[in-house]
Every structure is written in structure tokens, then in C-alpha cells.
Amino acid sequence: MDTMETLMSRNSIPPKLLSEPAPSEDTLQEILDTAVRAPDHGAIQPWRFHIVRGGARAQLAEIFVEALLKRVPDAPEAAITKERNRTRFAPVVIVACAKVTTDHPTVPIIEQIVSTGAAIQNIMNAAHAKGFGSFLSTGKNASDPHVKQAFNLTEEDEIVGFVYLGTPKPGLSAKPRPDVKEFCSEWTGPISAAAAE
Ligand SMILES: Cc1cc2nc3c(=O)[nH]c(=O)nc-3n(C[C@H](O)[C@H](O)[C@H](O)COP(=O)(O)O)c2cc1C
Fold this sequence. Notes:
NADH Oxidase, five-stranded antiparallel beta sheet, 8 helices
């Protein structure tokens, strides 16, 4: 697949539709290598990628359950089961974090988060190029202090996303995409609110 074909054909694959085999060690390394090609203002390197595989997935799921029970002590059994099953399907979960520099003179925190988002996109496109599927999710777990603590993150740091990675089940079809022209215009000067309608 050439680069344009890769970029144009990626679709998110929900974790339940991802299964074994996981990428080999070498392929996973190649996929991860693309993450550190993300634009990074000030060369801050805020990214941290935690690879969760095998039995560690169940351990992460238990942390999700504990976090839920801290937020909602009387959470219904169905909600607990949902958390427990979150990491069950995809063979690899990459927890993409930003360890942010809060007092950088020129690079605000948002740029460090954006850099981590760009790194995630590289990972997802690289995975697709290598024949694997992926899904990015956040939900309440991404901002939960108990979950963040498990990744040695402070309050200011962010879990930018959980990237679920695996082999897509067969038979998935591409979803329709909007026409980019709807989102583009030639800017020739300030746009008034009336003209923007
Ligand atoms: C930052 C971010 C967080 C997301 N978090 C969730 C989430 O928690 N749960 C979910 O179902 N989808 C979430 N999504 C949406 C999916 O990752 C995915 O983008 C969506 O299903 C559309 O699929 P597509 O990538 O094929 O367009 C999130 C997307 C982004 C960009």
C-alpha cells in the first residue's frame, strides 16, 4: 500500500472487532517508531507510550474497575463488567500519555497534547499500513486520577488516548467520508459572521 492509499483507507476498528494475531515484536517497533516522527514544538518529547499486552491487559481492566468504583461506589454490575471487558479483545493496548511541561516559555501545554495526538495518528496509520486495525478511545478512564496514577502521571499530565491494536476481523467495510470541500475555502481576507453562514 502506498502512503496515500494508507491515509485514505484507514478506518477505526472497534476493539471487539480486533483480535489476535498482534503485530510481531519487530512490526510493533516499526509502528511505534513512527510516533516519534510527530511534530514536536521545542523538542519537548512529551510522549510516553505504555504497551499493555498479555496478562497486563486484565490488570489494566481492574484499574478501570477500581476507578469506576471510586467515581460511582454503587456502580451497576453491567458497568463493572463493561470496564472489565474493555481490554479483553484487542491483543495490544497502547496508552498514549503526555508528560507535560507546564512552565515552558514558548510551548503551551496544548501543543504538547497536540503533538501526542499526532503521534497517535502516526501509530494508527502505520498499524493500518502493516495490515493491522486500531481504535482510539478516551472516555472517563483517560482523565481519571486513579488510572493516571497507574501510569505515573501528575494532575497536569494527560492520557491522550488508549489505542487498541490488533488484527481486524474479516468482512469490515469502509465507512463513508465527507467531501473535504465542505470544510475548505480560499481565504482572501477576514470573514464576517454573515459571510460564514
Ligand atoms: C481523542 C479521541 C477520543 C475518542 N474517544 C472515544 C471513546 O472514548 N469512545 C468511542 O467510542 N469513540 C471515541 N473516539 C472515536 C473513535 O476513535 C473513532 O474516531 C470513531 O469511531 C470514528 O472512526 P474513524 O476513525 O474511522 O473515523 C475518540 C476519538 C478521538 C479523536
